[in-house]
Every structure is written in C-alpha cells, then in structure tokens.
Amino acid sequence: MKIKSAKFIVSNQSIEKCPNVNIPEYAFIGRSNVGKSSLINMLTNNKKLTKTSSTPGKTRLINHFLINGIWHLVDLPGYGYAKVSKSEKKEFHKLITDYFTKRNQLVSAFILVDSRHEVQKIDIEFMKWLTINNIAFAIIFTKIDKIKQNGNPNDGIEFKINNYKKVLLNHWEYLPKIFLSSSVKHIGRDNILQYIGKINATVTQK
Ligand code: GDP
What we know:
Elements: E1 6-12, E2 25-30, H1 36-43, E3 62-67, E4 71-75, H2 86-102, E5 106-114, H3 121-132, E6 137-142, H4 156-171, E7 178-180, H5 189-205
Parallel strand pairs: 2-4, 2-5, 5-6, 6-7
Antiparallel strand pairs: 1-3, 3-4
C-alpha cells in the first residue's frame, strides 16, 4: 500500500467523541517509550504526524489519523509508565477498555513490543485480555536496529523473537502475525502496510 495522504483528524479522551464514520480502523498500542510515535511517523512517511515523546506516559488521548481517505490509524496512549498516579491509571484503564470493547470500526490492534527487552508481563496480560474479548491483534517488535547481530546463536534478533514465540505458545495455540520494525533503519514499513492493505480489501468487500 502506498501512503498518499495521512491527516490528523481528532484527539480525544472518550470513545463517544471518536469519528462517527464506518471505515476500518487499526489501533497502535504498547508500553510507553516503545517507539510507537516513531513507528507511526515511519508508516505514514511523515516525521511530524505524531510527536515523539520525551516525557513517556504524558499523552492520555485517543488520536485518529485518516490514511488515504479510507482507513483510520489510531494512536492509543502508552501503558505501563510507573510515574503516573492511581487516578490517572484508572482513567487510562477505562479509556482503553472502552475503546477496545466499544469501537466497532476496530479491525485489528498492533501491540508494540521493544525487541531489546525481556518478555513483559504487562504485554502478555494485555494480549490475553484482547483474546478474551475477541479482539484481533498482531505484534510489532520495535527498535530491531538496537539488537546486535554478532553471529552468536544464543543472541541476536532471531533468538529474541523465537524466545518470545515460545512464551506466547505457552498461552496460545497459534501465534499471532508478527512484524519486526526499525524506525531508524526504515524496516518493517512495507510488510505492515501490505498487511493492513490486504485486510482492508477483504473488509470493504463485505
Ligand atoms: P513512544 O513513547 O512509544 O511514542 O516512543 P517514541 O517513538 O517517542 O520513541 C521513544 C524513544 O525511542 C525515542 O528516543 C526514539 O528516538 C527511540 N526510538 C524509537 N524507535 C526507534 C527505533 O526503531 N530504533 C532506535 N534505535 N530508536 C528508536
């Protein structure tokens, strides 16, 4: 899929205020600082579409972007940031729960995972919650340029991803769709956009 246009539509704090149009929607979410803004900017070929955050966890908004006039890319707030108050956490929880359980336009979520880190309980718990609620998701491993490739079979990106897959298979019978990305090296863009394009084609045929 070629990106012909990427337009910011609206930022808001409640599901009721999300755009009231029936076009396919893809939501991007992950722990704070996972590289979500950078990834969205890379996907849309727009360095400024979302502001990359120097203060993780600060934005608690649902952001809608209209892509090529036919689908929405949704930037959801990052989770798991320790330095937020209990009431902020509660608010965030409600926002995310509302979004995923009520937003009928949602076709698939993309869960972003920092490829450098060990498997995080919060990510697995979130994926489990999505599964229980029948919400489709794919995983994007971000920042793969930061993983050293030194030829050691117990190291490197393949080892990391295989390890992650093993953990997933402890909880699920099938693996979700998995993508690798680097916003710095411009990796993963074509695969992710092609995947969205293919789903869009089937969704709009219905
Ligand atoms: P967000 O908080 O999830 O939106 O993450 P950002 O996109 O703001 O990125 C957090 C930090 O990681 C910033 O310092 C980015 O420059 C850096 N970053 C994001 N993506 C990549 C990547 O693919 N490779 C590298 N090396 N750094 C990245």
